[in-house]
């Protein structure tokens, strides 16, 4: 089926003895060829005509799509060569020319017809078959189809002729064996039992010969063969098999052969041919058929037929006789036989059937014989034996593996159970840790509050004590001054008294004393001193006693405190005082090149006070970071922000018309949709109304499950419906005329506070579930906030980022004292000069190179993933709803009083109130902890929610890890590129040649994807068979033996076991 006449396959040489004249092909008799080629080449037509004719030629060639596509890509010159090559080949004779001769050979009356003998001519039947084989192999596909069509029925004729020649050959072999046995009886050899006859000749057991060579039937056949100048049977059979091979190489012919009842039987019966070359050809065809889906069953059926015809005791007996007891070692036959056994045993998917077939050949002595052939010199045979042994199933080893696998599976199941228990325990421990951390954070907050209160009270007491000490000191000084002044006054009075004349009046003394008093009055004394009592007129008064202690004057205001002890004025709301009292003015960085800018949100100095950025000093990092390399990588300017286009998808709402509700026959006070919904809910509820009302009254969630409570909440009658039912009852209308749904709602309207009771039941049923759902979320926020705020590694990472950002921005926008955390997302937008890395990549590389202890900073940020999916606002809302529900429960309990009806409510309140109170305290702690954390990072707690804040940190940590991995991958690629550049030019040339060869191999593999399926040992489907598939299968089997996918594992395990066994034997011998 190729593009031209194949010159590789020449007709096989004659197998008959040289003295047979009909087997010798003379030039006189063999002047026929299947086709002739005209060597003249016509001029090339225009492109349109060329394409038309080339398309027609491609259609006639019936090539696979990949090969046809390859030919279509040829240039005009090659296409024209193909057209000329195909058009120059003309079939010399039609299929009927050969078929008429074959039918003549099959006709028993042809030898008596002169006309038919003349039609056959001088050519032998062998020569006719050879011409037919060449025509089938080289002519167009249309010729082959014409040969096989229903009109010519060439396959049937060829199979009939093959069957006819097989019968002749079997009879000839029996005659030869009979003559041999007769000679052995006449000339018995010593040591041989003459009474025993050899039943097995040529590998099969034959029945007694029922005809002699002189019988009338054989005489007629011999005359028929002689008159028609037919060749020997063995030659005709071999060429018939070649014709079958040529037919099966065609897609249409292959399917016809597979579907024919007797075709494969005749091919398999050809194994009785004495020629080992013919046997090898037959076995190759049978092996190729096994590799087509459904072919294996056909081959086994053919060998079952072979067993019946040749009277074998067991199937494959004759084949193994040929293989084991050969007269002459024929490597081609041995390889083909080993290949066939390998494929017929191991191309089955059913494992049990494979073991059965394997045992059939083991029983015929194959395993022991293969052991003797292990050291054969033929490499091809050794490869086929190795492939068979690799595919062999060792049932004992499989049983051992099965037991081991069972034990392993049990162990795996046990480990999985343990792992599940450990995982559950881990979750419990994690929840306990979260709860413990939250509890400790709460205690810490309380302790801090107590510490602040004690500190404030201590400060107030200290100030009060200081003030009192100053006042006492002042009073003591004043008392001393007064005492000294009074003492001086007394002394003065005494002196005045002594100096007074005896007759001086008291008035004069008073005037004198008043003058002295005015002259000596102190500015600190606010009033006149009281005069001593006047002495009696007759007696001189003694010296006045010391002045009585005067009441202390009002205290003066304390002096202004000194600057050292002066309390600091309270700061403005929202700001904290900066350490050391002032902010350091940052310097601008002058760069050598124009650099891109970081689109962050910078903080002003007054916004930094009291935050984490107040503790950062990025200027000190300028000596540690190599900013020269940084400028080289990021110079020229910033890359434009990459914006990913987002496709907006509009979800269309499709409404489907609902089925019409059948109008009820009874009266209904409900609208249509409401009535239908009530009916659906009642079917789901599936409880009598009396039981429902009783459960609602007693608030019994055991009788009325929570799902039914939710259904009833949707069925609560509205005010309008309640009014309608009341009017219906007042008007004394017949209640039985109402629908079942209306009766149900009518009974519900009689329950007092129905909506409130259902809400209370729903709250009680959902309380503990909500509590267990909210509590871990609160604990996650508390733990995450605490870990983020106290992380020293995160603080250092932010300091490095601030240093890089200021290096880029300070010359254009001025230095920044801090930045918003949402600016971390923009680190991916600033690209380097070559666009191969971003600012985050460089920062990560710097941290890994200079600050390796910070590379795992995310290990400090505990529980941020859990906190990132929690909304603090929603938690607060949920807790408020729980509090409202608890108030409703309390009101309902108060309404019911202390009777038995309130027992359920009071039990619930006794268990739930403390838990709700603790939950509220935890929420307060979470709010305070999160607020402190957010304010510490210069964010506003009013505009920042927990999920947004922690999600930002989660994104940053993930981007940090990805950047680190990409840096490592880039480093490896650069190292590989450097190693490649260091190689010599010869290595590069060798590598290029190797790559070219790989590309060519890839093209070849792509063009032969069907053949690749065969190489992968996948069975072809019958509809997947293509033109040339048989040859591809045979070539594939020659290049690589048949191995199953699981054969490699078994062969490796077997090799390991053999190595272990050999080592053990060596140790034993030692």
Description of the structure:
The protein has 1070 residues and is mainly alpha-helical. The protein has 39 helices and four strands. Strand 3 (200-201) and strand 4 form a beta hairpin. The radius of gyration is 57 Å and the shape is elongated. The protein starts with 34 loop residues before the first strand and ends with a helix. Mean pLDDT is 75; it is low at 1-39, 190-214, 519-579, 637-664, 1009-1016 and 1060-1068.
What secondary-structure arrangement, pairings included, does this model have?
Elements (H helix, E strand, L loop, with lengths): L34 E3 L9 H15 L3 H8 L3 H12 L1 E3 L3 H12 L7 H7 L4 H14 L2 H8 L5 H33 L13 E2 L2 E2 L10 H12 L5 H16 L2 H9 L3 H7 L6 H15 L4 H15 L7 H8 L6 H16 L4 H13 L2 H7 L6 H13 L3 H105 L6 H15 L84 H4 L18 H8 L37 H14 L3 H10 L7 H10 L3 H12 L9 H9 L5 H36 L2 H22 L25 H12 L13 H4 L4 H25 L6 H34 L9 H37 L2 H23 L1 H7 L13 H11 L7 H23 L1
Antiparallel strand pairs: 1-2, 3-4
Helix pairs in contact: 1-3, 4-6, 4-8, 6-10, 8-10, 10-13, 12-14, 13-16, 16-17, 16-19, 19-39, 20-29, 20-34, 24-26, 26-29, 29-33, 29-34, 31-35, 33-34, 37-38
Number of strands: 4
Helix count from the secondary structure assignment? 39
**Uncertain runs:** 1-39, 190-214, 519-579, 637-664, 1009-1016, 1060-1068
Distance between the termini: 65 Å
Q: Looking across the biggest beta sheet, what order are the strands in?
A: 1-2
């Amino acid at each position: 089926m190729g593009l031209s006449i194949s010159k590789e396959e020449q007709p096989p040489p004659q197998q008959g003895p040289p003295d047979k004249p009909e087997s010798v092909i003379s030039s006189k008799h063999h002047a026929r060829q299947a086709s002739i080629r005209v060597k003249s080449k016509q001029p090339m037509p225009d492109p349109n005509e060329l394409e038309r004719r080339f398309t027609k030629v491609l259609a006639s060639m019936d090539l696979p799509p990949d090969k046809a596509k390859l030919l279509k890509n040829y240039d005009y010159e090659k296409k024209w060569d193909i057209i000329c090559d195909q058009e120059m080949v003309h079939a010399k004779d039609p299929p009927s020319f050969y078929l008429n001769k074959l039918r003549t050979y099959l006709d028993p009356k042809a030898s008596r017809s002169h006309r038919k003998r003349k039609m056959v001519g001088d050519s032998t039947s062998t020569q006719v078959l050879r011409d037919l084989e060449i025509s089938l192999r080289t002519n167009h596909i249309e010729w082959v189809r014409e040969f096989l069509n229903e009109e010519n029925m060439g396959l049937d004729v060829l199979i009939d002729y093959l069957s006819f020649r097989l019968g002749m050959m079997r009879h000839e072999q029996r005659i030869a064996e009979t003559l041999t046995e007769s000679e052995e009886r006449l000339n018995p050899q010593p040591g041989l039992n003459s009474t025993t006859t050899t039943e097995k000749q040529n590998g099969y057991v034959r029945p007694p010969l029922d005809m002699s060579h002189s019988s009338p039937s054989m005489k007629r056949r011999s005359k028929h063969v002689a008159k028609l100048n037919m060749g020997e049977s063995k030659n005709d059979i071999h060429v018939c098999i070649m014709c079958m091979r040529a037919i099966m190489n065609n897609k249409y012919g292959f399917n016809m052969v597979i579907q024919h009842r007797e075709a494969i039987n005749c091919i398999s019966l050809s194994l009785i041919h004495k020629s080992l070359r013919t046997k090898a050809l037959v076995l190759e065809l049978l092996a190729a058929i096994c590799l087509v889906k459904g072919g294996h069953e056909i081959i086994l059926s053919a060998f079952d037929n072979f067993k019946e015809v040749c009277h074998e005791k067991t199937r494959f007996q004759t084949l193994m006789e040929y293989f084991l007891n050969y007269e002459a070692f024929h490597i081609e036959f041995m390889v083909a036989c080993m290949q066939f056994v390998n494929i017929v045993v191991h191309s089955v998917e059913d494992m049990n059937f494979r073991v059965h077939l394997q045992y059939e050949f083991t029983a015929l002595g194959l395993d022991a014989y293969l052991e003797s052939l292990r050291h054969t010199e033929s490499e091809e045979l050794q490869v086929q034996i190795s492939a068979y042994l690799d595919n062999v199933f060792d049932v004992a080893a499989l049983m051992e593996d099965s037991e081991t696998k069972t034990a392993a599976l049990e162990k795996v199941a046990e480990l999985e159970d343990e792992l599940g228990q450990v995982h559950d325990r881990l979750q419990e421990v994690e929840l306990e840790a979260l709860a413990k951390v939250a509890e400790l954070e709460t205690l810490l907050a309380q302790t801090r509050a107590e510490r602040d209160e004690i500190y404030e009270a201590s400060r107030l007491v200290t100030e009060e004590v200081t003030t009192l000490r100053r006042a006492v000191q002042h009073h003591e000084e004043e008392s001393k001054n007064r005492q000294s002044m009074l003492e001086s006054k007394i002394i003065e009075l005494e002196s005045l008294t002594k100096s007074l004349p005896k007759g001086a009046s008291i008035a004069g003394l008073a005037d004198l004393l008043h003058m002295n008093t005015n002259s000596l009055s102190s500015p600190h004394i606010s009033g006149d001193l009281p005069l001593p009592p006047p002495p009696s007129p007759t007696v001189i008064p003694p010296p006045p006693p010391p002045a009585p202690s005067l009441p202390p004057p009002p205290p003066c205001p304390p002096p202004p405190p000194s600057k050292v002890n002066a309390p600091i004025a309270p700061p403005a709301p929202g700001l904290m005082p900066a350490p050391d009292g002032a902010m350091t003015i940052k310097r601008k960085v002058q760069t050598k090149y124009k650099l891109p800018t970081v689109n962050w949100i910078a903080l002003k100095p007054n916004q930094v006070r009291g935050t984490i950025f107040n503790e950062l000093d990025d200027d000190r990092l300028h000596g540690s970071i190599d900013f020269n390399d940084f400028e080289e990588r990021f110079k020229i300017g910033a890359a434009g922000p990459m914006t990913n286009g987002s496709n907006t998808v509009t979800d269309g709402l499709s409404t489907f018309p609902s089925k019409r509700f059948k109008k009820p026959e009874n009266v209904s006070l409900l609208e249509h949709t409401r009535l239908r919904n009530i009916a659906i809910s009642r079917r789901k509820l599936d409880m009598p109304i009396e039981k429902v009302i009783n459960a609602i009254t007693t608030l019994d969630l055991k009788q009325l499950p929570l799902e039914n409570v939710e259904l009833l909440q949707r069925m609560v009658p509205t005010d309008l419906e309640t009014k309608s039912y009341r009017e219906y009852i007042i008007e004394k209308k017949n209640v039985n005329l109402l629908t079942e749904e209306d009766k149900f709602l009518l009974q519900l309207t009689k329950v007092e506070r129905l909506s409130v009771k259902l809400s209370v039941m729903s709250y009680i049923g959902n309380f503990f579930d909500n509590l267990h759902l909210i509590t871990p979320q609160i604990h996650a926020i508390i733990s995450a906030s605490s870990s983020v705020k106290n992380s020293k590694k995160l603080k250092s990472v932010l300091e490095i980022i601030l240093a890089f950002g200021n290096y880029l921005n300070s010359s254009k926008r001025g230095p920044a004292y801090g930045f918003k955390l949402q600016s971390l997302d923009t680190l991916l937008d600033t690209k380097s000069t070559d666009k191969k890395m971003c600012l985050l990549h460089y920062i990560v590389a710097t941290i890994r190179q200079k600050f390796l202890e910070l590379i795992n900073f995310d290990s400090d940020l505990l529980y941020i993933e859990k906190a990132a999916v929690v909304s603090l606002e929603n938690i607060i809302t949920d807790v408020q709803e729980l509090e409202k529900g608890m108030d409703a429960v309390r009101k309902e309990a108060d309404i019911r009083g202390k009777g038995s009806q309130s027992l359920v409510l009071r039990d619930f309140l006794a268990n739930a109130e403390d838990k709700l109170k603790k939950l509220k305290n935890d929420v307060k702690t979470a709010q305070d902890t999160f607020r402190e954390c957010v304010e510490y990072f210069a964010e506003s707690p009013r505009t920042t929610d927990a999920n947004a804040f922690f999600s930002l940190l989660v994104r940053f940590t993930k981007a940090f890890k990805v950047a680190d991995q990409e840096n490592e991958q880039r480093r490896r690629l650069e190292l590989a590129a450097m190693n490649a550049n260091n190689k010599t030019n010869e290595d590069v040339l060798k590598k290029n040649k190797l790559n070219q060869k790989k590309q060519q191999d890839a093209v070849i593999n792509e063009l032969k994807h069907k053949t690749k399926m065969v190489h992968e040992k996948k069975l072809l489907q019958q509809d997947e068979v293509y033109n040339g598939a048989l040859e591809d299968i045979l070539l594939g089997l020659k290049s690589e033996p048949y191995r199953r996918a699981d054969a490699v594992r078994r062969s490796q395990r077997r090799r390991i076991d053999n190595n272990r066994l050999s080592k053990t034997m060596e140790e034993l011998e030692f």
